[in-house]
Amino acid sequence: MEKAKKVVWGFLVISLIVIALLYGAYLYKSNNNETLGKNILFYRYDCPHCKIVDAFVALNNITSKIEFEHLEISKPVNTQLILQAAKICKISQSDLRVPLYYDSAENKCYVGDTPIINYFKLKLNLPLNNS
Description:
The protein is an alpha+beta fold.
């Protein structure tokens, strides 16, 4: 009888661990897909090209016209997200740079200050000749 109790308890513990792992994986996948379902501007605090994009965004009040998240890539969760965006956009890790803008509607990435600024200009019908 004692052996049967140990087997049942062992089975319950293993079942709970498996359920917890599966649920954790589900939550991780759900959260990442939800975030990648949004437009995201990935940047780094010390990146001069990121500062150019930030200045353009501020000067033209872009955040009131186009909804997107600013994510700093030094945080591990944001690093994982930029890697997911790069995978979707078929950007190799060796070619991955910031600033990187991920457009969720088009599943497309724009890398570098000029392509990102031109993207915003096209979206908002601003002249393309000045940065």
